[in-house]
Prior knowledge:
Blueprint: H1 2-10, H2 19-24, H3 26-43, H4 51-68, H5 70-94, H6 101-120, H7 123-140
Helix pairs in contact: 4-7, 5-6
Amino acid sequence: MRWHRKLRELLPDVSVPSVEGELADPTQADDVYEAFGTLLKEKTRDRTKFSLVFEENCNYGFRRNLWGMKSLGITSAIIGVVGIVVVILLNTQVRQATTPPVAYVAGSFNALLLIVWTAVVTPTWVKTAADAYAVRLLASSDHL
């Protein structure tokens, strides 16, 4: 594989694991690949020259951060929906008043956010961006 050749070229003192070596000692293989990844990250910091690497890293970071905030996002959206339902019920049942249209808009927006937080922000969604970043980072080795 071309990336194994590039790994040997960039890290000549490191023994690049074969498929058999990866199976025999996955921890050692992971250490080698981690060292290669660290080297690539250091050598691709120039945002102008490696703009696609930077862009994919930003995409991955954004998705990873949203995943980390998922429980807070779901909680906030639920509180928003419940709050708006309470406002609508108080207006219509207690005060016998018309609920302002903005309340329905806010409730719909919170419901939409709840759907996005639960259906879109998933481990698969984050992994897609992580894989794209990894491929872009590995492909950048062709220009080193």
